Amino acid sequence: MAVHIRLTRAGTKKKPFYRVVVTDQRAPRGGRFLENIGTFDPSKETKDNPLAVDQERLAYWRGNGAVPSDTLTRLLKRAAKVAAAPAK
Q: Higher model confidence: residue 63 or residue 49?
């Protein structure tokens, strides 16, 4: 069983909200998941960091072989860059 870390869509029409979930790769996008480890709210894109992830659980799952999706990898890199930037 290959485990992936990816986004699942929630929210309403034209107001998306995503959950960061750990799931079997065969499960559909909005289907079963093993664990919910965070959220991504694109409406907070102008704010500091729209991505909220439990870093401890993310490290645990990555250590056990879970692979993040391309989109989530990009969001994690952006969040790390925002966190590393000096506060104004």
A: 63
- Say if CB 3 and CB 23 are below 8 A apart: yes
Residue 50 makes CB contacts below 8 A (sequence gap 6+) with: 40, 41, 42, 43, 44
What domains does the chain contain, in order, with CATH numbers? 3-84 (3.30.1320.10)
Distance between CA atoms of 37 and 20, rounded to whole angstroms? Answer: 6
Contact 72, 5 (CB under 8 A): yes
Contact assessment for residue 60 and residue 66, using Cβ atoms and an 8 Å cutoff: no
pLDDT of 88 higher than 70: no
Residues with Cβ < 8 Å from 77, sequence gap 6 or more?
Answer: none
pTM: 0.85
**Count of Cβ atoms closer than 10 Å to residue 39 Cβ:** 16
Alpha-carbon torsion, ordered 42, 44, 19, 14, to 10 deg? -50
